[in-house]
Design a protein that fits this description.
single chain; four-stranded antiparallel beta sheet
């Protein structure tokens, strides 16, 4: 159990980015952590959009997206496969997200 927690903390820390002077996580990384599809995560957020003010979640602008993508050198990187501008979540948004998702991992994270 302790190793699982340590791996999760390490995995999470590698998925935190600094955008708009805030530490955030991308929708696709959170979907992986919660074992759901990114589209399912986005649908849940859109259905509960009033729970996600801009200090909890925002979508990257075209310029922010281009800047974020430019940080990754190889074109075949997993980061380059995005078709839509990602939603990014602050710490408060991640906590709120775990309360609106219906997955076992999200429920455990919320507890």
């Amino acid at each position: 159990m302790k190793n699982e927690i340590l791996i999760s903390e390490e995995l999470i820390s590698n998925k935190i980015y600094f955008i708009r002077n805030q530490k955030v996580m991308l929708d696709r990384d959170l979907a992986l952590l919660y074992s759901i599809e990114t589209r399912v995560l986005k649908q849940a957020v859109r259905r509960n959009i009033s729970r996600f003010p801009e200090d909890f979640m925002f979508e990257l602008t075209k310029e922010e997206f281009a800047n974020w993508r430019s940080q990754f050198v190889t074109s075949n990187s997993e980061k380059m496969g995005l078709r839509y501008f990602p939603m990014v979540f602050t710490e408060h948004g991640v906590l709120m997200l775990s309360s609106v998702l219906n997955s076992d991992k999200a429920i455990q994270a919320n507890i």
